[in-house]
C-alpha cells in the first residue's frame, strides 16, 4: 500500500511504525513498497530531530539527477534521528549537491558503508576531534607563547603550512618551559561530545578503537588508558632536567604517517580496509580519511570540508556511531 508523503508525520521519527513493513520506493508524492534491484550508493540523513523537509530537499536533488530512491529505514541511535536511503546511482558531484542543500541536518552520501555486525576499526585524530582543544596551544599558553604558537597551528590545520614544519616551529617555541605544564593540560582536557558514547558503542560492536595524533604521547596515552582504547600513536616531546628542549624525538606523525598507521592497524587486526573508519578535522587528516572505508570530517576546516568523504557539522562523535549502525 502506498504511503502519501503529505499525511506522514512531520518528524521522521514518527515514521518508524509505518515503515516497519519493509523498504519503500520513492515516487512523486508517495512511497510504495519495494526495493532497488542494484543500489549503487547510500544516503544517510541525521539530526537531533530529523524533519520531513530534510527528505524533501534531498529528494528534489535526487529527482533532478534522475536517481531512483529506496527509503530503507528510520532509526534513533545515541538520541539522534537517522533516515537511511539507498540510491540507484552515486557520484562525488551528487554528494556535493546534497551537501549544498543540507540546512539543519548532517548527511553521508557514500558508495558503501561499513557493516556494524562485522569486525571493524576506528582511527581518530585527537586534537579538536577526540578532545575539544589543541594541546600544543594550551601548553604554549601556559608557557607564555600562546599567540605565536596558535597562529602556526591555524596555518597547519588549514593546509597553509606543511605539518612537520609547523610542528617543529611550535615545539621550538616551547624551549626552556617547565614540562610540568603537561599535567596541567591533562587535568583540564575536555572530551569531545559523543566520544564516550562512540567508544562504548564501538566496544559493544566488538570494534577496535585507536588514536593517531599529530599531538603528543602524554595526552594520547592518557585517553587510551582512561577510555580503554586499543592503541595510540603521537609525537614525543624531548624533555631534559624537567624542561622542554624545543625538539621532537623520532619520526613525526604527519598525514602520511596517519594513513600508514590505519593500514598497519587493519593488517594487525586482520580487518579489511572497507571496515575501517577514520575521523579528523584538519588538513593533516585528509590522507587518513581517504584511505579508510569511511572517512568522516568532524566540525572541519574549509579545505577538509571540501575534500572529506563525509562531513559532520551539527552532530558530534555520536553521529559516527549512528552512521555505523545505519544499515
Automatic annotation (TrEMBL):
It catalyses: O-phospho-L-serine + H2O = L-serine + phosphate; O-phospho-D-serine + H2O = D-serine + phosphate. Pfam families: Hydrolase. Pathway: Amino-acid biosynthesis; L-serine biosynthesis; L-serine from 3-phospho-D-glycerate: step 3/3. Keywords: Amino-acid biosynthesis, Hydrolase, Magnesium, Metal-binding, Serine biosynthesis. It comes from the Bacteria. NCBIfam families: HAD-SF-IB (TIGR01488), serB (TIGR00338). This is Phosphoserine phosphatase. The gene is serB.
Amino acid at each position: 500500500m502506498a504511503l502519501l508523503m503529505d499525511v506522514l508525520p512531520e518528524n521522521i521519527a514518527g515514521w518508524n511504525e509505518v515503515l516497519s513493513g519493509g523498504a519503500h520506493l520513492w515516487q512523486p508524492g508517495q512511497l510504495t513498497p519495494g526495493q532497488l534491484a542494484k543500489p549503487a550508493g547510500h544516503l544517510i540523513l541525521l539530526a537531533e530531530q530529523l524533519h520531513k523537509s530534510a527528505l524533501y530537499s534531498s529528494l528534489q536533488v535526487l529527482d533532478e539527477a534522475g536517481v531512483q530512491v529506496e527509503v530503507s529505514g528510520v532509526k534513533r541511535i545515541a538520541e539522534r534521528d537517522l533516515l537511511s536511503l539507498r540510491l540507484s546511482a552515486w557520484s562525488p558531484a551528487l554528494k556535493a549537491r546534497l551537501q549544498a542543500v543540507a540546512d539543519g541536518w548532517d548527511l553521508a552520501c557514500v558508495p558503501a558503508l561499513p557493516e556494524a555486525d562485522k569486525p571493524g576499526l576506528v582511527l581518530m585524530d585527537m586534537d579538536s576531534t577526540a578532545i575539544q582543544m589543541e594541546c600544543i596551544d594550551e601548553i604554549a599558553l601556559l608557557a607564555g607563547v600562546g599567540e605565536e604558537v596558535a597562529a602556526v597551528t591555524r596555518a597547519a590545520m588549514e593546509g597553509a603550512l606543511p605539518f612537520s614544519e609547523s610542528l617543529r616551529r611550535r615545539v621550538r617555541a616551547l624551549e626552556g618551559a617547565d614540562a610540568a605544564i603537561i599535567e596541567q593540560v591533562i587535568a583540564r582536557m575536555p572530551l569531545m561530545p559523543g566520544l564516550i558514547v562512540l567508544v562504548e558503542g564501538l566496544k559493544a560492536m566488538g570494534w577496535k578503537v585507536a588514536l593517531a595524533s599529530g599531538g603528543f604521547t602524554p595526552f594520547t596515552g592518557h585517553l587510551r588508558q582512561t577510555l580503554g582504547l586499543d592503541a595510540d600513536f603521537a609525537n614525543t616531546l624531548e624533555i631534559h632536567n624537567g624542561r622542554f628542549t624545543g625538539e621532537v624525538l623520532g619520526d613525526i606523525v604527519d598525514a602520511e604517517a596517519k594513513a600508514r598507521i590505519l593500514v598497519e592497524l587493519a593488517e594487525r587486526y586482520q580487518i579489511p580496509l572497507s571496515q575501517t573508519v577514520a575521523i579528523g578535522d584538519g588538513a593533516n587528516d585528509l590522507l587518513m580519511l581517504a584511505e579508510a572505508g569511511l572517512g568522516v570530517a568532524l566540525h572541519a576546516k574549509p579545505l577538509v570540508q571540501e575534500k572529506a568523504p563525509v562531513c559532520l557539522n551539527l552532530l558530534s562523535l555520536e553521529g559516527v556511531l549512528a552512521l555505523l549502525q545505519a544499515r
